[in-house]
Design brief:
Elements: H1 11-67, H2 70-81, H3 89-113, H4 118-126, H5 129-146, H6 150-174, H7 180-206, H8 230-251, H9 253-261, H10 264-280, H11 282-302, H12 304-331, H13 333-340, H14 348-356, H15 358-371, H16 378-429, H17 431-434, H18 436-443
Helix pairs in contact: 1-3, 1-4, 1-5, 1-6, 1-8, 1-9, 1-10, 1-11, 2-5, 2-11, 3-4, 3-8, 4-7, 5-6, 5-7, 6-7, 8-16, 9-10, 9-16, 10-14, 10-16, 11-12, 11-15, 12-14, 12-15, 12-18, 14-16, 15-16
Length: 444
């Protein structure tokens, strides 16, 4: 008897390998980013670290103005229209040029007219190119996701974090005085290199010289062959830009407001604990934004049964993983702060304990919230994010003056709870529209 033909790897095994690659790249990249922040915190001290973290938070926030959420928009239009989604690229890139210019000019305006010190203004001005670097990282990652080149996505995550670390480490090791401005300049140099790489990748998209895998169908609807201009693209893309901007608005709100409401030291204390939690959120962020998001957009239009399964399995898995991570950080908070930052950051311990409670909440809300990026749900998601951003600002303004960094941590916890509740209510209310074919299947 002849032997059976050899079969290719099963889809589940392939998916598992791809996820492992992404997590491996994310762990390596996040490890470098985390190590960079720890090294800077230990050498700068809470004061300068607070100024640097504030500038970094503002650059990350404005990078969403520059990028306008185009990375998620591209995943959406290719999921809906198949390869005809390429018609949106020329208008997208024209819009990107205008929004990037606006974002950089805004930061210069904040540096010149803002309420911070002269050192704060200098740091902001030096770090302006970082806005473009953060945006470029997300846009290239979206292109690679469309091609399902997950190993390249993993490598890209390592490259940009590794580049920053490689430029900053010699500065820290050889400095005899303050390193705030030198570090800011190094971040910008890394951003310039990243942007140069990204331009080559975006040119390929403009020439339609790339292969988006798994996007064969065409459900473009109106004006299939038309290439929309920048203004029409803006009409369609603004919910995605608003979503990412509002996310960072409440995610970075405490970092920014602490500097102005409580001072440099409290901002540095909070950012030390925030950096640890940010590393923890790597697991859900990688899974949903780097691997599942493009698939969720396809399933929303072509297979709502898979979309429903992803919600149920994902939420249960994220609750278990988030609880385990949060509990571990809660129990080991003293040890973590002492080892990573040293005695000057002792006040970060209660902040980290409070933020650890956010872990299971954030993990689950990432799973549920990803469903609201699909189909026609984006406006609902943006409305929820706007409410949570307003809640975050209000809680910070109320709690920071009397409680400093710990008050900011409580404000963050309150915002995370509000976000999860609103996401859950939205999914329940719109469940029939989101999972229409799945409900039909189960009904039969």
């Amino acid at each position: 008897m002849s032997s059976p033909p050899r079969t290719s790897k099963s889809p589940r095994l392939t998916a598992a390998i791809q996820i492992c690659l992404l997590w491996g790249g994310s762990l390596a990249g996040a490890g470098l980013a985390f190590l960079t922040q720890v090294v800077l915190g230990r050498h700068m001290g809470p004061g300068d670290y607070g100024i640097f973290s504030n500038a970094l938070a503002q650059c990350m926030l404005l990078s969403q103005v520059a990028g306008l959420g185009l990375q998620t928009f591209w995943l959406s239009v290719y999921g809906r229209e198949g390869r005809h989604g390429a018609r949106w690229i020329p208008g997208s890139l024209k819009l990107l040029a205008a929004s990037s210019t606006l974002a950089v000019l805004t930061l210069f305006l904040i540096a010149a007219l803002g309420p911070g010190s002269h050192r704060t203004a200098e740091t902001l001005a030096l770090m302006a190119p970082s806005i473009l670097g953060f945006a470029a990282v997300e846009l290239v990652a979206a292109k690679l996701q469309l091609e399902e080149r997950f190993a390249s996505v993993a490598a890209w995550q390592v490259i940009h974090h590794g580049l920053r670390f490689a430029l900053i480490f010699p500065i820290v090791m050889t400095a005899t005085g303050e390193i705030l401005l030198e570090t800011s300049a190094a971040y910008s140099l890394a951003a310039v290199i990243i942007v140069a790489i990204a331009i080559q990748q975006l040119r390929r998209m403009l020439r339609n010289d790339f292969e988006p895998l798994g996007h064969h169908g065409n459900r473009a609807g109106e004006d299939t062959e038309e290439a929309p201009g920048a203004l029409r693209t803006l009409v369609h893309v603004w919910p995605y830009g608003a979503d990412t901007l509002l996310y960072l608005a409440y995610f970075q709100c405490s970092n920014i407001l602490l500097l102005y409401l409580a001072g440099d030291r409290d901002a540095g204390i909070y950012f030390a604990a925030f950096t640890i939690m940010n590393a923890t959120y790597l697991l859900p962020t990688t899974l949903y934004t780097k691997f599942l998001l493009s698939k969720l957009h396809r399933w929303a239009h072509h297979d709502q049964t898979k979309l429903l399964r992803a919600l149920k399995a994902g939420s249960a898995s994220m609750l278990a993983a988030g609880t385990a991570c949060g509990l571990a950080i809660w129990l080991a908070s003293d040890f973590i702060i002492n080892v990573l930052y040293g005695s000057r950051f002792q006040d970060a311990k209660p902040v980290l304990v409070t933020l650890a409670i956010c872990a299971p909440i954030r993990f689950v809300s990432t799973s549920i919230g990803a469903i609201l990026t699909t189909g026609s749900q984006m406006r609902m998601r943006v409305t929820i994010k706007a409410l949570c951003a307003a809640l975050c600002v209000a809680l910070n303004v109320l709690l920071i003056p009397g409680h400093g960094a710990t008050g900011a941590a409580v404000a963050t916890l309150g915002t995370e709870i509000g976000l999860l509740l609103l996401f859950s209510i939205a999914i329940y209310v719109r469940r029939t529209a989101i999972f229409r074919s799945a409900h039909t299947q189960y009904a039969h």
